[in-house]
Amino acid sequence: MTPISVLPDGRSTSALGFGCANLFRNDDGAASQTLIDAALDSGIRHFDVAPSYAWGQAEASLGMALSGHNLEVTIATKVGIRRPAPRSKLAQLRSVGAPFKRFAPRLWSKLGHAARRTTQADTCFVADHVRADLHQSLRELGVLKIDIYLLHNVRPADITTDLVNLLLAKKNDGYIGEIGLGSSYVDCELIASQWPELASVLQFPDREADHISSRFCITHGAIQHGLHHIRKWRAENEEAARNLSPKVGIDLFDDDEIASALLGYALSRNEGGIVLFSSTRPSRVKRLAAAASDVGFLSAACQRLRSGMQEIDSQRYR
Ligand SMILES: NC(=O)c1ccc[n+]([C@@H]2O[C@H](COP(=O)([O-])OP(=O)(O)OC[C@H]3O[C@@H](n4cnc5c(N)ncnc54)[C@H](OP(=O)(O)O)[C@@H]3O)[C@@H](O)[C@H]2O)c1
Fold first, then answer.
1. Global pTM?
2. Ligand 1 neighbourhood includes 281 CB (under 6 angstroms)
3. What is the CATH number of the domain that holds 42?
4. Alpha carbon of 224 to those of 21, 214, 221: distances in Å?
Protein backbone atom coordinates (compact mmCIF):
# COMPACT_ATOMS: atom_id res chain seq x y z
CA MET A 1 0.00 0.00 0.00
CA THR A 2 1.57 3.30 -1.10
CA PRO A 3 1.71 5.85 1.75
CA ILE A 4 -0.56 8.90 1.49
CA SER A 5 0.38 12.57 1.85
CA VAL A 6 -1.85 15.61 2.27
CA LEU A 7 -1.23 18.72 0.18
CA PRO A 8 -1.41 22.17 1.84
CA ASP A 9 -4.95 22.65 0.43
CA GLY A 10 -6.10 19.45 2.18
CA ARG A 11 -6.21 17.14 -0.85
CA SER A 12 -4.73 13.67 -0.42
CA THR A 13 -2.39 12.05 -2.88
CA SER A 14 0.23 9.30 -2.90
CA ALA A 15 3.56 9.96 -1.19
CA LEU A 16 5.20 8.35 -4.18
CA GLY A 17 4.99 10.38 -7.38
CA PHE A 18 5.79 9.32 -10.92
CA GLY A 19 8.16 11.57 -12.90
CA CYS A 20 7.41 11.97 -16.61
CA ALA A 21 10.71 13.52 -17.76
CA ASN A 22 11.94 10.54 -19.77
CA LEU A 23 8.75 8.76 -20.58
CA PHE A 24 7.62 9.62 -23.97
CA ARG A 25 10.70 9.63 -26.17
CA ASN A 26 10.42 7.59 -29.35
CA ASP A 27 6.96 6.55 -28.33
CA ASP A 28 3.75 6.16 -30.29
CA GLY A 29 1.66 6.58 -27.14
CA ALA A 30 1.16 2.91 -26.31
CA ALA A 31 4.30 2.62 -24.18
CA SER A 32 3.38 5.76 -22.25
CA GLN A 33 -0.10 4.39 -21.59
CA THR A 34 1.40 1.12 -20.28
CA LEU A 35 3.70 3.00 -17.90
CA ILE A 36 0.98 5.28 -16.58
CA ASP A 37 -1.31 2.25 -16.18
CA ALA A 38 1.46 0.48 -14.21
CA ALA A 39 1.87 3.52 -11.96
CA LEU A 40 -1.90 3.82 -11.35
CA ASP A 41 -2.27 0.06 -10.73
CA SER A 42 0.49 0.41 -8.11
CA GLY A 43 -1.42 3.09 -6.21
CA ILE A 44 0.52 6.09 -7.51
CA ARG A 45 -1.71 9.15 -7.72
CA HIS A 46 0.78 11.98 -8.20
CA PHE A 47 2.42 12.77 -11.55
CA ASP A 48 5.17 15.28 -12.26
CA VAL A 49 5.57 16.74 -15.74
CA ALA A 50 6.79 19.91 -17.49
CA PRO A 51 6.26 21.60 -20.87
CA SER A 52 9.93 20.99 -21.67
CA TYR A 53 9.90 17.22 -21.02
CA ALA A 54 10.17 14.70 -23.86
CA TRP A 55 10.53 17.24 -26.67
CA GLY A 56 7.42 19.00 -25.42
CA GLN A 57 5.20 15.93 -25.71
CA ALA A 58 5.03 14.84 -22.09
CA GLU A 59 2.07 16.96 -20.95
CA ALA A 60 -0.16 15.86 -23.85
CA SER A 61 0.87 12.20 -23.48
CA LEU A 62 0.24 12.22 -19.74
CA GLY A 63 -3.14 13.91 -20.23
CA MET A 64 -4.08 11.31 -22.83
CA ALA A 65 -2.91 8.36 -20.72
CA LEU A 66 -4.83 9.58 -17.66
CA SER A 67 -8.00 10.39 -19.58
CA GLY A 68 -9.04 6.73 -19.84
CA HIS A 69 -9.12 6.38 -16.05
CA ASN A 70 -11.68 7.70 -13.67
CA LEU A 71 -9.27 8.11 -10.77
CA GLU A 72 -8.52 11.18 -8.71
CA VAL A 73 -4.92 12.15 -9.32
CA THR A 74 -2.76 15.21 -8.69
CA ILE A 75 -0.55 16.68 -11.39
CA ALA A 76 2.37 19.06 -10.99
CA THR A 77 3.53 20.89 -14.08
CA LYS A 78 5.91 23.78 -14.46
CA VAL A 79 6.72 27.01 -16.19
CA GLY A 80 10.12 28.53 -16.82
CA ILE A 81 12.17 26.17 -18.97
CA ARG A 82 10.78 26.86 -22.41
CA ARG A 83 8.55 24.51 -24.36
CA PRO A 84 10.72 23.08 -27.17
CA ALA A 85 9.87 23.42 -30.84
CA PRO A 86 7.53 20.65 -32.01
CA ARG A 87 9.25 17.35 -32.52
CA SER A 88 8.45 17.36 -36.22
CA LYS A 89 10.44 20.55 -36.66
CA LEU A 90 13.43 19.09 -34.84
CA ALA A 91 13.23 15.97 -36.94
CA GLN A 92 13.03 18.08 -40.11
CA LEU A 93 16.04 20.09 -39.00
CA ARG A 94 18.05 16.93 -38.49
CA SER A 95 16.99 15.22 -41.68
CA VAL A 96 17.86 18.34 -43.69
CA GLY A 97 21.26 18.47 -42.02
CA ALA A 98 22.12 14.76 -42.17
CA PRO A 99 23.50 14.67 -45.76
CA PHE A 100 25.85 17.53 -44.84
CA LYS A 101 27.41 15.74 -41.89
CA ARG A 102 30.43 14.44 -43.82
CA PHE A 103 30.84 17.27 -46.31
CA ALA A 104 29.96 20.22 -44.11
CA PRO A 105 30.72 19.28 -40.50
CA ARG A 106 30.50 22.91 -39.37
CA LEU A 107 26.99 23.32 -40.76
CA TRP A 108 26.05 19.99 -39.18
CA SER A 109 27.41 21.15 -35.86
CA LYS A 110 25.48 24.44 -36.09
CA LEU A 111 22.27 22.54 -36.83
CA GLY A 112 22.97 20.32 -33.82
CA HIS A 113 23.37 23.37 -31.60
CA ALA A 114 20.15 24.88 -32.96
CA ALA A 115 18.24 21.65 -32.27
CA ARG A 116 19.68 21.32 -28.76
CA ARG A 117 18.91 24.94 -27.88
CA THR A 118 15.22 24.14 -28.20
CA THR A 119 15.38 21.76 -25.24
CA GLN A 120 18.09 23.33 -23.12
CA ALA A 121 17.46 25.01 -19.82
CA ASP A 122 16.62 28.43 -21.23
CA THR A 123 14.15 29.94 -18.76
CA CYS A 124 11.56 32.70 -19.08
CA PHE A 125 9.40 34.05 -16.23
CA VAL A 126 7.98 37.13 -17.99
CA ALA A 127 4.33 37.41 -16.89
CA ASP A 128 2.86 37.41 -20.44
CA HIS A 129 4.80 34.26 -21.31
CA VAL A 130 3.73 32.57 -18.06
CA ARG A 131 0.04 33.43 -18.72
CA ALA A 132 0.15 31.91 -22.22
CA ASP A 133 2.15 28.88 -21.10
CA LEU A 134 -0.22 28.13 -18.19
CA HIS A 135 -3.20 28.01 -20.56
CA GLN A 136 -1.25 25.84 -23.01
CA SER A 137 -0.41 23.41 -20.17
CA LEU A 138 -4.12 23.23 -19.23
CA ARG A 139 -4.98 22.40 -22.85
CA GLU A 140 -2.17 19.85 -23.29
CA LEU A 141 -3.09 18.05 -20.06
CA GLY A 142 -6.82 18.33 -20.74
CA VAL A 143 -7.60 19.65 -17.25
CA LEU A 144 -9.35 22.76 -15.88
CA LYS A 145 -6.93 23.22 -13.01
CA ILE A 146 -3.26 22.48 -12.38
CA ASP A 147 -2.89 21.03 -8.88
CA ILE A 148 0.70 22.19 -8.36
CA TYR A 149 2.27 24.84 -10.61
CA LEU A 150 6.03 25.07 -10.13
CA LEU A 151 8.48 27.73 -11.26
CA HIS A 152 11.04 25.54 -13.02
CA ASN A 153 14.74 26.21 -12.30
CA VAL A 154 13.77 29.63 -10.94
CA ARG A 155 16.31 31.96 -9.31
CA PRO A 156 15.57 34.83 -6.92
CA ALA A 157 16.32 37.45 -9.63
CA ASP A 158 13.55 35.97 -11.85
CA ILE A 159 10.76 37.00 -9.46
CA THR A 160 8.91 40.23 -10.32
CA THR A 161 5.76 41.75 -8.88
CA ASP A 162 4.05 41.26 -12.26
CA LEU A 163 4.80 37.52 -12.05
CA VAL A 164 3.59 37.24 -8.44
CA ASN A 165 0.37 39.16 -9.20
CA LEU A 166 -0.34 37.05 -12.26
CA LEU A 167 0.15 33.74 -10.42
CA LEU A 168 -2.01 34.84 -7.48
CA ALA A 169 -4.75 36.03 -9.86
CA LYS A 170 -4.68 32.68 -11.72
CA LYS A 171 -4.84 30.83 -8.41
CA ASN A 172 -7.76 33.01 -7.35
CA ASP A 173 -9.53 32.28 -10.66
CA GLY A 174 -9.18 28.54 -9.95
CA TYR A 175 -6.65 27.63 -12.65
CA ILE A 176 -3.92 26.75 -10.12
CA GLY A 177 -4.18 24.77 -6.86
CA GLU A 178 -0.78 25.31 -5.24
CA ILE A 179 1.98 27.62 -6.46
CA GLY A 180 5.47 26.24 -5.83
CA LEU A 181 9.14 26.38 -6.68
CA GLY A 182 11.12 23.66 -8.49
CA SER A 183 14.79 24.52 -8.22
CA SER A 184 17.81 23.97 -5.96
CA TYR A 185 16.94 23.87 -2.25
CA VAL A 186 18.94 27.07 -1.63
CA ASP A 187 17.12 29.05 -4.33
CA CYS A 188 13.76 27.65 -3.17
CA GLU A 189 14.36 28.83 0.41
CA LEU A 190 15.76 32.22 -0.68
CA ILE A 191 12.65 32.92 -2.76
CA ALA A 192 10.32 31.45 -0.13
CA SER A 193 11.67 33.80 2.55
CA GLN A 194 10.80 36.84 0.42
CA TRP A 195 7.73 35.56 -1.46
CA PRO A 196 6.05 32.95 0.78
CA GLU A 197 2.92 33.14 -1.40
CA LEU A 198 4.93 31.43 -4.19
CA ALA A 199 6.19 28.66 -1.97
CA SER A 200 3.44 26.45 -0.60
CA VAL A 201 5.33 23.57 -2.28
CA LEU A 202 9.11 23.24 -2.71
CA GLN A 203 10.56 20.71 -5.16
CA PHE A 204 14.30 19.99 -5.12
CA PRO A 205 16.83 17.13 -5.47
CA ASP A 206 16.76 14.37 -2.85
CA ARG A 207 20.50 14.83 -2.24
CA GLU A 208 19.64 18.26 -0.75
CA ALA A 209 16.94 16.76 1.45
CA ASP A 210 19.02 16.94 4.64
CA HIS A 211 17.46 20.39 4.97
CA ILE A 212 13.77 19.42 4.59
CA SER A 213 11.87 22.54 5.61
CA SER A 214 8.54 22.94 7.32
CA ARG A 215 6.89 23.54 3.93
CA PHE A 216 5.40 20.77 1.78
CA CYS A 217 8.42 19.23 0.00
CA ILE A 218 8.73 17.13 -3.14
CA THR A 219 12.10 15.51 -3.78
CA HIS A 220 13.47 13.86 -6.91
CA GLY A 221 16.50 11.93 -8.23
CA ALA A 222 17.02 9.63 -5.21
CA ILE A 223 17.53 6.47 -7.27
CA GLN A 224 19.55 7.97 -10.09
CA HIS A 225 21.97 9.81 -7.82
CA GLY A 226 22.32 7.06 -5.19
CA LEU A 227 22.66 4.23 -7.70
CA HIS A 228 25.41 6.08 -9.55
CA HIS A 229 27.33 6.61 -6.31
CA ILE A 230 26.92 3.00 -5.11
CA ARG A 231 27.84 1.48 -8.49
CA LYS A 232 31.03 3.53 -8.53
CA TRP A 233 31.82 2.55 -4.94
CA ARG A 234 31.26 -1.19 -5.50
CA ALA A 235 33.46 -1.12 -8.63
CA GLU A 236 36.29 0.27 -6.50
CA ASN A 237 35.55 -1.97 -3.47
CA GLU A 238 34.37 -5.27 -4.94
CA GLU A 239 35.42 -7.55 -2.13
CA ALA A 240 34.29 -5.17 0.61
CA ALA A 241 30.91 -4.87 -1.16
CA ARG A 242 30.53 -8.68 -1.13
CA ASN A 243 31.26 -8.81 2.60
CA LEU A 244 29.02 -5.83 3.39
CA SER A 245 25.92 -7.14 1.56
CA PRO A 246 24.81 -9.76 4.17
CA LYS A 247 25.62 -7.39 7.06
CA VAL A 248 23.35 -4.60 5.81
CA GLY A 249 20.70 -6.85 4.26
CA ILE A 250 21.01 -5.43 0.73
CA ASP A 251 22.68 -7.30 -2.12
CA LEU A 252 25.09 -4.65 -3.33
CA PHE A 253 25.24 -6.37 -6.73
CA ASP A 254 21.48 -6.22 -7.25
CA ASP A 255 20.48 -2.78 -8.58
CA ASP A 256 16.78 -3.50 -7.98
CA GLU A 257 17.40 -4.06 -4.27
CA ILE A 258 19.54 -0.95 -4.06
CA ALA A 259 16.95 1.16 -5.93
CA SER A 260 14.17 0.00 -3.57
CA ALA A 261 16.27 0.83 -0.51
CA LEU A 262 17.13 4.29 -1.88
CA LEU A 263 13.47 5.00 -2.52
CA GLY A 264 12.50 3.82 0.98
CA TYR A 265 15.18 6.01 2.52
CA ALA A 266 14.04 9.03 0.46
CA LEU A 267 10.44 8.49 1.62
CA SER A 268 11.52 8.26 5.26
CA ARG A 269 13.48 11.53 4.96
CA ASN A 270 10.56 13.37 3.36
CA GLU A 271 7.74 12.10 5.54
CA GLY A 272 4.47 13.87 4.75
CA GLY A 273 5.79 15.08 1.37
CA ILE A 274 6.14 13.43 -2.04
CA VAL A 275 9.12 11.50 -3.44
CA LEU A 276 9.33 11.35 -7.23
CA PHE A 277 10.87 8.50 -9.14
CA SER A 278 10.86 7.43 -12.76
CA SER A 279 11.45 4.37 -14.87
CA THR A 280 10.80 3.50 -18.48
CA ARG A 281 9.95 -0.12 -17.51
CA PRO A 282 6.45 -0.99 -16.26
CA SER A 283 7.70 -4.02 -14.26
CA ARG A 284 10.20 -1.79 -12.45
CA VAL A 285 7.53 0.83 -11.71
CA LYS A 286 5.43 -1.88 -10.09
CA ARG A 287 8.36 -3.37 -8.16
CA LEU A 288 9.53 0.00 -6.82
CA ALA A 289 6.01 1.08 -5.87
CA ALA A 290 5.44 -2.23 -4.05
CA ALA A 291 8.70 -1.81 -2.15
CA ALA A 292 7.66 1.68 -1.06
CA SER A 293 5.04 0.14 1.23
CA ASP A 294 7.86 -1.06 3.48
CA VAL A 295 9.49 2.30 4.13
CA GLY A 296 10.73 1.57 7.66
CA PHE A 297 12.52 -1.65 6.70
CA LEU A 298 14.09 -0.23 3.54
CA SER A 299 15.15 2.99 5.18
CA ALA A 300 16.90 1.13 8.02
CA ALA A 301 18.72 -1.09 5.49
CA CYS A 302 19.78 1.95 3.47
CA GLN A 303 21.11 3.69 6.57
CA ARG A 304 23.09 0.56 7.53
CA LEU A 305 24.51 0.56 4.01
CA ARG A 306 25.51 4.23 4.19
CA SER A 307 27.30 3.82 7.51
CA GLY A 308 28.93 0.53 6.35
CA MET A 309 30.31 2.24 3.24
CA GLN A 310 31.49 5.24 5.27
CA GLU A 311 33.27 2.98 7.76
CA ILE A 312 35.07 1.09 5.02
CA ASP A 313 36.09 4.38 3.37
CA SER A 314 37.39 5.79 6.66
CA GLN A 315 39.43 2.60 7.34
CA ARG A 316 40.87 2.77 3.83
CA TYR A 317 42.09 6.33 4.24
CA ARG A 318 43.18 6.00 7.87
N1 LIG B 1 13.55 20.86 -11.39
C2 LIG B 1 12.69 19.87 -11.13
O3 LIG B 1 11.62 20.09 -10.61
C4 LIG B 1 13.07 18.44 -11.50
C5 LIG B 1 14.39 18.12 -11.83
C6 LIG B 1 14.68 16.79 -12.13
C7 LIG B 1 13.69 15.80 -12.09
N8 LIG B 1 12.42 16.16 -11.79
C9 LIG B 1 11.32 15.14 -11.79
O10 LIG B 1 11.71 14.04 -11.00
C11 LIG B 1 11.45 12.83 -11.73
C12 LIG B 1 12.34 11.73 -11.22
O13 LIG B 1 13.71 12.08 -11.44
P14 LIG B 1 14.77 11.01 -11.88
O15 LIG B 1 14.40 10.51 -13.23
O16 LIG B 1 16.13 11.53 -11.62
O17 LIG B 1 14.40 9.83 -10.87
P18 LIG B 1 15.04 8.55 -10.31
O19 LIG B 1 13.87 7.70 -10.03
O20 LIG B 1 15.99 8.88 -9.23
O21 LIG B 1 15.94 7.93 -11.49
C22 LIG B 1 15.36 7.33 -12.59
C23 LIG B 1 16.44 6.54 -13.32
O24 LIG B 1 16.86 5.46 -12.50
C25 LIG B 1 16.85 4.27 -13.27
N26 LIG B 1 16.51 3.14 -12.41
C27 LIG B 1 15.45 3.01 -11.60
N28 LIG B 1 15.48 1.81 -10.98
C29 LIG B 1 16.56 1.18 -11.44
C30 LIG B 1 17.12 -0.11 -11.17
N31 LIG B 1 16.55 -0.97 -10.33
N32 LIG B 1 18.25 -0.44 -11.83
C33 LIG B 1 18.82 0.42 -12.69
N34 LIG B 1 18.33 1.66 -12.97
C35 LIG B 1 17.22 2.02 -12.35
C36 LIG B 1 15.80 4.48 -14.33
O37 LIG B 1 16.14 3.70 -15.47
P38 LIG B 1 15.00 2.86 -16.28
O39 LIG B 1 14.19 3.85 -17.01
O40 LIG B 1 15.84 1.98 -17.15
O41 LIG B 1 14.23 2.08 -15.25
C42 LIG B 1 15.92 5.97 -14.62
O43 LIG B 1 16.91 6.21 -15.61
C44 LIG B 1 11.67 13.24 -13.18
O45 LIG B 1 11.06 12.35 -14.09
C46 LIG B 1 11.00 14.60 -13.18
O47 LIG B 1 9.60 14.43 -13.30
C48 LIG B 1 12.09 17.45 -11.48
1. 0.90
2. yes
3. 3.20.20.100
4. 13, 25, 5
